[in-house]
Structure to design on (827 residues):
């Protein structure tokens, strides 16, 4: 099926049945499971996602309602984590903000991968002039200061969730494109690709069905990690005041409470911890995946 | 301690403006006062309104008069003046020997020139001096203003913030006053301090003008305005005593509480009466649903400004009750009030046929949030959004990225609703009439952009503009405030939290209605 199928051919010995071949995804899972830190990451991530999905229906305080005196410290009211500068419940904000933050992270990562893989695949597969043009475009985006460029995009088209995700996507795809291109350059010269071509496979088939599945492992790792960096990026934009005023996200909570940091450290600390935990979990999972997928590392 | 200090301020100020000083300590000459600036584009207040230009410009340029406590008009560059029986001619006598910072004498010609510049270039130029038909200068130290109707607020507009006296020999060269190079370079002023160093990216340094026309003034040797843009940095510097005086400090109520606890630092909200900074929710009255009075009434019942001022702004702001600031001499509290009552609001909306639709909402609208007063407008907008959600009204907040974007939307009337705020200025004809006059429905920001027109209101405004009897005028403004609230032209929010943060070592802190925008002639440092 693919090159990751590295089970060595076992010479048939008389009387013994062939061992059942293990599927590659199962192998990856087995490797992943042995990696404790990756499993902890996966558990944290799973918990965060579950809380974000069902939390708001269990904890029904609205994150927008002013429920208590502003800037109440944690533990001094029925609102466990205290309140922000408008007297809104921070816990409700955290629970509801998770959805928005993770959605932005995922959508931006999807966009990053989509743009990056498309451009990288085309450049790597066709080479020549197309490669040249696409790589110059990539370099152009690479030399733009990321944060500034994203700020300009968000300011120009108003800070809505979609625009923020798009802005993050279009500033972070370049490294994915370079990685994809490198993989394609390497794989397109492989014998099995040549074989496919010789039996008359078209370009589209070669790109999508033959090369891409074989280039996928490192890209999966990059995709996982880019969710984390997109979440951080969103927090950065929010910190500078560029957040969707109509949606509660962790980044926005930090941005909103920043002017009050001298009097209420908790207003920025809790959403900060939430972001930290999520990004850490994603990184652990990404690293675990990297170790599990990469056949060279597996030999160690 | 703070209380007794504040109580003694008016006395101290009144005394120093007169002959003998009654203040606790004898004023001492010398010393450098550190203030701050958040950035300015010009030092010429004749072409630019606002505090950023006003704070330094009131030191650099003198006006004909100053405004003392209780809005008393005090002599400044004009040592005396005379108003004719019919109130149509005002004659000013200038002090002898007054000179500009380059040594040229200040004459009636300069005053005449300055007034013409202000009339043509200042945003309120026409409101202030539109009825001045001609200006005579029969002698070098005399200025005669001829009016086509009595202007009760005229003298109030002649203090340095609104009518700085400019050197004609510098500016009268045919160049556009708004972009004149001498507004920023080699500025030659007429006031107590002159510009020593002007680097808008770093700091502005003013030094005492030795030949100032009041003997022995100013006391200070130097005023430094370093550029500090970040509000948090400002709070920390104030706390450490690195800034002595911060008018329009841009601090939030919670920062004020923090600063009050710091040693040697005082916080006051005095000195903003004549500016009269009010905030309000502006609704576009031309279109549905806000053309319907019942909808506005429902909003007024749903939005509890008292809650906003007491809880969100920590009880440090006054709830707004109408177009006039509570510090304005014409303020009247006798206006219709809309008690917070969500049920009544819902009933009003139902009656006005804005009942909850199939999508679960009554209606939705976009609420613009300008960028120039986030400390006030963002909490207000978020409160309104949460509050109206309870009535099934969806409010989409749209934060403007910059001043220009917001101005364009509002001035072209292309908006549903916006958070807004404006200055009353000492006379309501300047800062208040502009929002209510039918003739002022213009594509200009801070005009009657919401499209309010009521003939009764126009009649009251016209009468109040020319009424010279103080009591009769007060009665007219009381009616105007009542009518503005009856018609619900705006939904008033808490007034601005304008605060001055100053160090203990400052004597004679400016406390007149113009506060920090008045000249620091009598300010001194105790060491």
């Amino acid at each position: 099926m693919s090159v990751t199928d590295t089970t060595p051919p076992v010479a048939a010995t008389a009387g013994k049945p062939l061992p059942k071949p293990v599927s590659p995804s199962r192998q990856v899972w087995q490797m992943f499971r042995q990696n404790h830190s990756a499993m902890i990451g996966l558990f944290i991530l799973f918990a965060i996602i579950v809380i974000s999905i069902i939390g708001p229906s269990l904890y029904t305080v609205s994150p927008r309602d002013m429920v208590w005196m502003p800037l109440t410290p944690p533990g001094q009211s029925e609102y466990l984590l205290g309140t922000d500068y408008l007297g809104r419940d921070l816990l409700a904000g955290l629970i509801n903000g998770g959805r928005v933050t993770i959605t932005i992270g995922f959508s931006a990562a999807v966009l990053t991968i989509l743009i990056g893989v498309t451009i990288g695949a085309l450049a790597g597969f066709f080479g020549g002039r197309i490669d040249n043009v696409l790589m110059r475009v990539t370099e152009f985006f690479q030399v733009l200061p990321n944060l500034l460029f994203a700020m300009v995009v968000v300011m120009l088209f108003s800070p809505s969730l979609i625009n923020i995700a798009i802005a993050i996507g279009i500033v972070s795809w370049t490294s994915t494109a370079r990685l994809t291109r490198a993989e394609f350059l390497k794989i397109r010269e492989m014998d099995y690709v040549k074989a496919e071509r010789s039996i008359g496979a078209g370009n589209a088939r070669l790109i999508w069905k033959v090369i891409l599945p074989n280039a996928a492992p490192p890209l999966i790792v990059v995709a996982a990690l880019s969710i984390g960096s997109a979440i951080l990026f969103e927090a950065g934009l929010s910190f500078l005041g560029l957040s969707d005023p109509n949606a509660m996200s962790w980044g926005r909570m930090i941005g909103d409470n920043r002017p009050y940091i001298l009097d209420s450290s908790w207003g920025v600390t809790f959403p900060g911890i939430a972001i930290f935990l999520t990004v850490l979990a994603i990184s652990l999972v990404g690293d675990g995946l990297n170790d599990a997928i990469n056949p060279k590392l597996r030999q160690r | 301690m703070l209380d007794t200090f504040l109580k003694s301020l008016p006395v101290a100020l009144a005394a120093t403006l007169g002959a003998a000083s009654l203040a606790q300590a004898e004023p001492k000459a010398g010393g450098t006062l550190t203030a701050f600036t958040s950035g300015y584009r010009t030092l010429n207040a004749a072409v630019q309104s606002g505090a950023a230009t006003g704070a330094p410009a009131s030191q650099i340029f003198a006006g004909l008069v100053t405004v003392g406590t209780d809005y008393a008009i005090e002599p400044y560059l004009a040592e005396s003046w005379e108003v004719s029986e019919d109130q149509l001619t005002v004659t000013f006598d200038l002090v002898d020997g007054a000179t500009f910072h380059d040594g040229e004498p200040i004459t009636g010609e300069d005053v005449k020139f300055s007034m013409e510049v202000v009339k043509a270039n200042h945003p309120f130029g026409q409101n202030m001096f539109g009825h001045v038909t001609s200006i005579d200068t029969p002698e070098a130290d005399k200025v005669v203003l001829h009016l086509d109707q009595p202007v009760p607020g005229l003298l109030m507009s002649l203090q340095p913030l609104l009518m700085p006296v400019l050197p004609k020999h510098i500016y009268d060269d045919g160049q556009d006053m708004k972009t004149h190079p001498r507004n920023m370079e080699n500025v030659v002023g007429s006031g107590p301090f002159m510009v020593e160093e002007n680097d808008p990216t770093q700091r502005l340094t003013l030094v005492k003008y030795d030949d100032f026309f009041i003997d022995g003034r100013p006391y200070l040797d130097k005023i430094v305005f370093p550029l500090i843009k970040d509000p948090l940095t400002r709070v920390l510097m104030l706390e450490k005593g690195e800034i002595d005086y911060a008018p329009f400090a841009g601090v939030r109520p919670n920062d004020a509480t923090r600063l009050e606890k710091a040693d040697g630092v005082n916080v006051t909200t005095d000195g903003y009466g004549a500016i009269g900074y009010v905030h309000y929710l502006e609704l576009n009255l031309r279109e549905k649903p806000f053309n319907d009075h019942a909808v506005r009434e429902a909003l007024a019942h749903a939005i509890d400004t008292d809650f906003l001022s007491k809880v969100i702004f920590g009880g440090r702001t006054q709830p707004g009750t109408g177009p006039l600031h509570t510090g304005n001499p014409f303020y009247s509290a006798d206006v219709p009030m809309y008690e917070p009552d969500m049920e009544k609001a819902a009933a009003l909306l139902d009656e006005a046929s804005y009942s909850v639709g199939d999508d679960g909402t009554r209606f939705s609208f976009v609420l613009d949030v300008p960028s120039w007063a986030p400390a006030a407008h963002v909490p207000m907008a978020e409160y309104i959004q949460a509050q109206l959600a309870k009535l099934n009204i969806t409010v989409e907040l749209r934060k403007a990225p910059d001043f220009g974007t917001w101005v364009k939307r509002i001035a072209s009337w292309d908006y549903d609703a916006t958070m807004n705020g404006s200055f009353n200025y000492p006379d309501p004809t300047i800062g208040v009439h502009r929002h209510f006059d039918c003739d002022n429905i213009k594509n200009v920001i801070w005009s009657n952009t919401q499209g309010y027109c009521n003939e009764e209101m126009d009649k009251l405004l016209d009468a109040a503009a020319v009424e010279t009897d103080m009591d009769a005028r007060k009665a007219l403004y009381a009616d105007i405030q009542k009518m503005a609230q009856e018609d619900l032209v705006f939904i008033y929010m808490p007034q601005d939290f304008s605060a001055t943060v100053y160090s203990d070592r400052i004597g004679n802190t400016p406390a007149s209605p113009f506060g920090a925008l008045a000249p620091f002639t009598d300010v001194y440092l105790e060491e």
About this structure: Residues 1-23 of chain B have pLDDT under 50 and may be disordered. Chain B touches chain A at residues 231-232, 235-236, 252, 254-255, 257-258, 311-312, 314, 369, 374-375, 378-379, 381-383, 385-386, 389, 396-399, 401-402 (CB under 8 Å). Residues 29 and 197 of chain B are 22 Å apart (CA to CA). The longest strand of chain B covers residues 193-199.
